[in-house]
Amino acid sequence: MRRILICLAVTVAGVAFSAPPPPKAGGAKLLLAFASVRARRAPPYPQVFFYEHDGVGDGKLLGSIDTITKGTNFTRSDSHPSLSRDGRYCAFAAQFGVVDGGRIEIWDRQEKKLLPLPTINPSTNVHQIGASLSADGKRVAFTTWARPGGSPRWGVFLYDTAEGKCVDLPRLNGDTVDQRMPALSADGRFIAYASNARGGVGMTDVYLYDVKEKAVVSLPEMNSKRTDMQPCLSGDGRLVAFSSDRPGGKGGRDIYLFDRKDKKFLPLAGLNSSAHEQSPCLSADGRYLAFVSERLDGAGEKDVYLYDRETQKLLPTPGLNSKEDDYDPWVVVRPE
Fold first, then answer.
1. Is a pLDDT exceeding 70 seen at residue 101?
2. Most buried of the four, 35, 77, 236, 302, by CB within 10 Å?
């Protein structure tokens, strides 16, 4: 008897999408990174924490990134973490007090130290935020204001840790518009970002940049006439999760999920509420979605939630949130 292995793939705009593997029935090892002011309230300097979850209903805090507290202008604020797939590396945005413009750092969780990143932070006067790491931890996308050699406004950059320099991204940044909130696909090919570029559908639209083809990909079927922002991607860039204040939602800003291959929105039953939902992060396999909500029954004003698309339910996350603001989540399914 012959066994025939059939590999299904579809191509959209020159990009091959493979059918995702069937999700496991729970028991996955998830790692979340998020920012919180729970440890430093006066003034509120955020710190990056880590949380392990079993994919069903149990979890625990695993500590935080070592930080610095030495007075107002010498205390480091850490936010917007992003994890490599194995959970070892965490890219994040850091700022000292009120005088530092902001910088991009990568923390090695195994060695418990910051990695040397030559040329990524050109000056303390340049504001850099919104780190997004590839699955292998070798590339990090970020946004920066008026970086030398780039746009005089907000622009998106991609840094190669092995080369120690930024990758050329022709036709991405514009001199008179903003490109912000970058999210790198796990394979490093696509960068999703928000922009107020002319010719878009609404006030702010979500775009993709194809690093391989060096081209901007518009998403007219996905964007609305309102504000669409804070995108994130599945591992191969097929699925795009984002927040929007478009009409027809549950209330305020809601989370939406779009399938680029089938050009349709996917259901997120039970995820949104009448309060603001924002800052989505999709696991590479597309199953889990971490996000922030301001719903009234949370532990604090802003809380991190974890949604399982397979069961279409919010998962219990004991010990995750605090009475203070918890936000900027990133989730990965760690390899067995």
1. yes
2. 35
